Amino acid sequence: MASRIRRCSTQKEFEQIIDDFITTGYKVQTRGETNALLVKTKKKDHLKVAILTIWWTFGIGNLIYAFMPAKVEDEVMVKLELKND
């Protein structure tokens, strides 16, 4: 489940919020008609890891590090809650 939930009341606001998060570096993980899960991941520093692991493991450690998934920095669930009058 997302660590934050952002609620909106119109379809236009829903699309605008998603666009705002995408421009700040988030990626859409899942999206439905009334909700979207956006995730921001931490960047990996391969150069630092490569220098340290080549010294001891001949680069095998860096290869393993390359295939490890990036850690999630932040998750946001955007929900569209339409009011029925």
General description of the model:
With 85 residues, this protein is an alpha+beta fold. It has one domain. It is built from 3 helices and 4 strands. A 4-stranded mixed sheet has the order 1-4-3-2, with helices on one face. A hairpin with a 3-residue loop joins strand 2 (27-31) and strand 3.
Strand order of the largest sheet: 1-4-3-2
The best one-word shape is rod-shaped
Number of strands: 4
Q: In sequence order, what are the helices and strands, one letter per element?
A: EHEEHHE
Distance between the ends: 30 Å
CA radius of gyration: 19 Å
Q: Given the helix and strand composition, which structural class is it?
A: alpha+beta
Q: What is the structure about, briefly put?
A:
It contains three helices and four strands. It is of the alpha+beta class. It has one domain.
Write the layout of secondary structure elements.
Elements: E1 4-8, H1 11-23, E2 27-31, E3 35-41, H2 46-57, H3 60-67, E4 72-80
Parallel strand pairs: 1-4
Antiparallel strand pairs: 2-3, 3-4
Helix pairs in contact: 2-3
Features:
4 strands; 85 residues; 31% strand; alpha+beta
